[in-house]
Amino acid sequence: MEPLVSRYPFLLSLLYLCVVSLLSPVRSGDAEALLTLKSAIDPLNSLSWQQGINVCKWQGVKECKNGRVTKLVVEYQNLSGTLDAKILNQLDQLRVLSFKGNSLSGQIPSLSGLVNLKSLFLQTNNFSSDFPDSITGLHRLKVIVLAQNQISGPIPASLLKLSRLYVLYLEDNKFTGAIPPLNQTSLRFFNVSNNQLSGQIPVTSSLIRFNTSSFIGNLNLCGVQIQNPCNNLNLGPSPSPTSPTSKPSSNHSKIIKIVAGSVGGFMFVIICLLLARCFCFENGPKKEGSSVEGVVGAERGGEALGGGGRGGGGMDGNGGGRQRGFSWEGEGLGSLVFLGAGDQKMCYSLEDLLKASAETLGRGTIGSTYKAVMESGFIVTVKRLKDSRYPRLEDFRRHMELLGRLRHPILVPLRAYFQAKEERLLVYDYFPNGSLFSLLHGTRTSGGGKPLHWTSCLKIAEDLATGLLYIHQNPGSTHGNLKSSNVLLGPEFESCLTDYGLTTFRNPDSLEEPSATSLFYRAPEIRDVRKPPTQPADVYSFGVLLLELLTGKTPFQDLVQEHGPDIPRWVRSVREEETESGDDPASGYEAAEEKLQALVNIAMACVSLTPENRPSMRDVLKMIRDARAEAQVSSNSSDYSPGRWSDTVQSLPREEHLTI
Fold it and tell me: I want to staple 243 with a disulfide (CB 3.0 to 4.6 A). Which of 122, 239, 281, 298 is the partner?
């Protein structure tokens, strides 16, 4: 039977018009929704939004994707009135929404339609009523900031459903009731101060890390985080001294029991500690599961060196030496100094840290890295510096304060440091997902690594370039030891730089050479360890790391030796071979090759042998962002998009010549 379209050609045109009429409102819907929103909340005409102009260029529209608004930031624009759920939910591609610093009022509307939302900033407004339940159904949400409003009622326990929650700021509101037992390991920033909350603060692995600054201003709260035992807080009516139910003799006996129990408990702890000390001397050191006290008391002479590990410094778990007592016992313990102006200090003490169980993560020329699990369940990464006598005490403190002020989403924050006569410890956040090295190349236990799509390579490259630029914006500041094992993976597998700024702790008189792992990342001009790191040298290391991303090969892999002693020379030889051959790229793969070629070109500019010819990190970041923007525009689902540049090379139908 002949198709209807063939018999009636006008049907095809009619069908086309119907499809266009259905799709066009989707494309123009964001502009219409925003104009409707403006008419409701912008009585002073602060927002210069006009029909006929590309919505992606409107004031406050910070980002678009495929013609849809993904980031809307309209802050301090004198907006007032109430938000309409029907209008906002039309913007269903939003990732970031901010109305910070306006005069919006009423209840926060249902945002159930914003299924892609990751960050919500509504602080410093006049919102009231209860916490909006719709927010807890947005499973991609990471950041919730509702501070400085008039929101009341309980903090919903349904926040536990947000497994990616990273920031929760609810301070300066009128919340009542108990704090829910938030246990997301991703939660790093939390504040519920100056509300009307009551009851015991839950002792979860997430909430235990925050201290008084996160809870202050709630008179009826108690818990270990604020050093206010719940039995000291009167949470309900109690009989008066003259009440018939009060019994002085009974109270006296209770006091005696409490004192006796405290003394007995103290003696029990002392006996246990003495037995444990004897047991440690009899059984010797343990490689894993020992305490940090045992780790920092270990003799320094027995430490082994190894390759790159989580947190930097190696994956070799051997060595460690014989354990003994603290070398500074006669002069008193040092102090644990928390860093970061404005940061919420972690809720643990030096005693908690020293009693924590420790597991070796790696060893290197700067020091050894440990995973420390405290009795509360809170986990940190502790780096024990190898040379505790260099630099001098005042120089060490000054450098610690400098590093402690560095705060950026792409940097693993230095939270605290400890120093005494013979010990120096650095305390960082713990990253359970390991390093970029293990993601690319696998581990001893998991085997092979994970092939990365070219879009992942672009994202990682942009993140790392952003972090390095932040470091370089401080005059004279460098990372100094950039390599894939010093790139840790966050809760969402985002890339974060660690071990930055630590090369100054290396004794310049030491003759110890860097490991092979580190050597191939170092720029030629500073492979002599006596020469200090420079910002151009960081750029070189970044180029090597980028080539590692694209090829899937470690810079020190024997396979590279076929074409050169390191990855940069290998890639140069491959490019020279292709130039000499004059072959054209195989048809069908041009799109993928062009996308990868952009990153290869950036990497090769970074690994220039002449430091003066290398681009600055600001220029590198711009080139990567340009390449990423072009890739997003040209990308489609039919693109051949291999995970690595080496996959592209291997898939081309040519044996004699490799093609980029």
Answer: 239
